[in-house]
Amino acid sequence: MFYFFFESRGNQTDPVVIWLTGGPGCGSELALFYENGPFHITSNLSLSLNDFGWDKVSNIIFVDQPTGTGFSYSSDDRDIRSDEEGVSNDLYSFLQAFFKEHPQFVKNDFFITGESYAGHYIPALASRIHQANQKNEGIHINMKGFAIGNGLTNPAIQYKAYPDYALNAKLIQQADYDMLQQKVSFCEQATKPCGNQSNAKDSCDKAYNVCGEIFNDILAIAGDINYYDIRKQCEGLMCYDFSNVETFLNQDPVKKALGVGDIEYVSCSTTVYQAMSADWMRNLADGIPSLLDLGIKVLVYAGEYDLICNWLGNWRWVDELVWSGQKQYAAAKNGSFMVDGKDFGLQKGFGPLSFLKVYNAGHLVPMDQPKPSLEMISRWTKGLPL
């Protein structure tokens, strides 16, 4: 597994944070160079310092995962993962090797972060780490919490929210909304046999196809919008032009410096994406309540203009979590997320659970709102209120 590790610009005792990019199959370098890493790639393919990189408040790891993503590779096709058990086991093994190589960071607070499909990866890894810690397996990882940004975590709830979000955002009309309700009903029925079971591949594949029609219909009605940021138009395969990262990382001097040999860097792997298709509709929120009840901190945040993993669907699955603080969380008042005297979001929370809707941001919150996102992660990892 290939990774970048950047020690904190502040203090070595700052938390260790691992960042997981979604896809599934997209390299962590997208976040590193366009979002919250210490550097941005300039138009002439040089590097410039990011004043709002999360390495200002943490020791941060960007890892290419699952295997087959970015510069992470295997010569054995059996290492291409198709479910969260395989993904989380590999990530746990990676972290064991990391802390063995960097023992000076073992006692630091540890947080898991990421976005998009990492809404699956993150809860799975958190549960895997907790199980290992309970069994005294390997090096103890001092996990304090995890943060999911614009994630896909509970698809049954989130797919149902698509028409509501689209109608509120004026992407569709009431007649379109009414038409989509039948497909929402079909989606609800299709997701039940899938659930969070790893042996329900056929059911999960069916749910993926049935529920996907809701999203595809909205796009057909809305036209050529960027479904990661509805304020913009979609440009290219990923709706953004991230070509500089591939050009930069595929330069021979860069590859030599990174020690990656002849591997061609591709931003997002279709092989990994297709291998994980049966995992897509599984509910990864199921494992979160037990972690909350143990005091593991959970932050779910979402940019308001993202359609594909929109804030409304995330708000709803968080609200429906059945845990010891559910009633108190539901009763908590909404507050403002203030940075330098300006309101950058709506937040609510109780105990270890927090939710943040980030204003003027799409799917990639650290790219769209770099300073507020740095302030968010700084306050949250330090135990300060948002």
Provide a descriptive summary of the structure in words:
- By secondary structure, the chain is an alpha/beta fold.
- It folds into 2 domains: 3-154 and 279-382, Alpha/Beta hydrolase fold, catalytic domain (Rossmann fold); 158-236, no CATH class.
- The protein has 15 helices and 13 strands.
- The strands form 3 sheets. The chain has a 9-stranded mixed beta sheet with strand order 1-5-2-6-7-10-13-12-11.
- A hairpin with a 2-residue loop joins strand 12 (342-350) and strand 13.
- It is globular, with a radius of gyration of 20 Å.
- The two termini are 34 Å apart.
- The mean pLDDT is 96.
Quick structural gist:
This protein is an alpha/beta fold. Helix content is 39%, strand content 17%. The chain is globular, with a radius of gyration of 20 Å.
Q: Key features?
A:
single chain; Rossmann fold; 17% strand; 386 residues; two-stranded antiparallel ribbon; 15 helices
Count of alpha and pi helical runs: 15
Radius of gyration (Å):
20 Å
Strand order of the largest sheet: 1-5-2-6-7-10-13-12-11
**Which class do the helix and strand fractions yield?**
alpha/beta
Terminal CA distance reads 34 Å
How many domain modules?
2
Determine the oligomeric state from the structure. single chain
The count of β-strands is: 13
Topology overview:
Elements lengths: L2 E4 L9 E5 L8 H6 L4 E3 L5 E3 L9 E5 L20 H18 L8 E6 L2 H17 L8 E7 L5 H6 L1 H7 L5 H18 L9 H22 L2 E2 L2 E5 L9 H7 L2 H7 L11 H6 L12 H6 L3 E7 L7 H9 L6 H6 L3 E5 L2 E9 L2 E6 L6 H4 L1 H13 L4
